[in-house]
Amino acid sequence: MNLQGSKPGFHTHGSKSNSIQRRAKKIGFMLRNCVTNFWVERDNDMLVDSGMDLAFPCLKFPTTNKKVDQCSVRQVTLEFYLEDGRHHETVVEDGLRASDLCNLLTLKFCLTRSFTWTIFEQFSDLGIERSLEDHEEVFQMYTDDCNLCSSERKFIMRQNLNKYQFLRNPENFYPLELVDLGTQMDCVTGSTVLTKMITVQNMLHSGKNMPAVQSFLWFKEPHKNSWRKYFFRLEDNVLRFSPVFDRKKPKQMYPLLDLQNSDIFLPMEGKCNKAPTKFGFCLKPKRNLGRSATVLRWFCCASEKVQECWMVALRLAKFGKKLVENYREVKSRWNFLDSSSLYQSKTQEKT
After folding, report:
1. Are 77 and 93 in contact (CB under 8 A)?
2. What is the spatial distance between Cα 327 and Cα 166, in angstroms, rounded to a whole number?
3. What is the Cβ-side half-sphere exposure of residue 190, based on CA atoms within 13 angstroms?
4. Are the CB atoms for 132 and 323 separated by under 8 Å?
5. Is pLDDT larger for residue 82 or for residue 14?
6. Is residue 195 within a helix (H) or strand (E), and if so which, with residue range?
7. Integer Cα distance of 62 and 312 in angstroms
8. Can you name the residues that pair with 157 across neighbouring β-strands?
9. Quick count: other Cβ atoms within 10 Å of Cβ 266?
């Protein structure tokens, strides 16, 4: 009786253990599938990030992957215009510099090759344009400002004869009354004009410490229509201003913009809207990507000579030594003669 009574109980216990084993096997199978899927997805992401081809087509990777889309889009088709109205569509790949693009466009437009060709970016709705430096990557520039794209954004190629003239003839772009040499010379006040200009030229070609530029400028603040005159000083990539200039207290100047984080523009029409003069320029902070003209900070100079000086100083403050490297590359590539060698050749012809 005891054996008979225990027999049913034994089978009941065995059925429960079998049920638990089956459930454990099922859970284990599910865990193995989860782990397998995890490693498969991780390997897929690693392959995509590394740029390698997926060597195992039997593995079912996701068909829509944002990383794949981002890595695959490394070129863009843009339309470039000449001043005579001709235009040409060109595929701009990542890493293509503005100087190399100009060489490519001269071939497509059947133009004479020259280092003076420059790409200009225009925004007709804002009435501004800026020139791209030779070392700037066009694809990177376009993608950084992609939210500014509109039918009124246009790329034009034209010649810029003054691109590197400030390095060949700095006396034409750096009036001494606008330059503060600071501690670059032992006796600045007693030095001759020639000594000061040689100092400016040495500073420019070194590409390290650029001459500080300062003068009075008209300034129009964002969201305002009135122009006010302030004293501005550009030094160490920072543009500072003061309502009242005092040479004895230069530290009272307040920082306005960091040129490393700003883009430099000129007005397209040659005259700012209701500006005191037609010699203006504007700065646009990169952190503000809006298309409104109210984000632009407009400046106005008293003469064209002052405007040219400020534009050169702003370019050097933003790009620094890179402009000097561009100039040296131009000289080596195009066998560009500087003023000294040109002068020697003329003297030899006379003799």
Report:
1. no
2. 10
3. 2
4. no
5. 82
6. helix 193-206
7. 52
8. 119
9. 19
- ∠ Cα 194 196 201 (to 5°): 95
Q: What percentage of the chain reaches a pLDDT higher than 90?
A: 45
Bridging pattern class, strands 212-220 and 297-300: antiparallel
CA–centroid distance for 186 within its chain:
37
Tokens of 99: 């100087």
Give yes or no for a contact between 123 and 153, defined as CB atoms under 8 angstroms apart: yes
Rounded mean pLDDT of the chain? 76
Residue 285 parent element (H or E): strand 280-285
The number of residues making up the chain comes to 351
101 three-state secondary structure: helix
Show the tokens assigned to 192. 């001759």
DSSP state of 209: S
Number of Cβ atoms within 10 Å of the Cβ of 213? 23
Sign of CA dihedral 183, 186, 189, 193: negative
pLDDT for residue 190 is more than 70: no
Q: Give the DSSP letter of residue 338.
A: -
Angle at 220 between CA 214 and CA 221, to 5 degrees: 105
Which residues sit opposite 254 in a β-bridge?
Answer: 241
SS3 318: helix
Both tokens assigned to 176: 């001494």
pLDDT of residue 212: 92
Q: Using one digit for the tens of pLDDT, what is the confidence trace for 264-313?
A: 999 987 556 688 999 999 998 876 555 556 678 999 999 999 999 999 99
**CA-based nearest residue to 160, from 210, 109, 102:** 102
Q: 131: left (phi > 0), else alpha (psi -120 to 50), else beta?
A: beta
d(CA 270, CA 257): 24
SS3 112: coil
DSSP 8-state secondary structure symbol assigned to residue 132: P
- The neighbouring-strand residues paired with 241 are 232, 254
Q: State both tokens at 164.
A: 């590197």
Q: Helix, strand or coil for residue 325?
A: helix
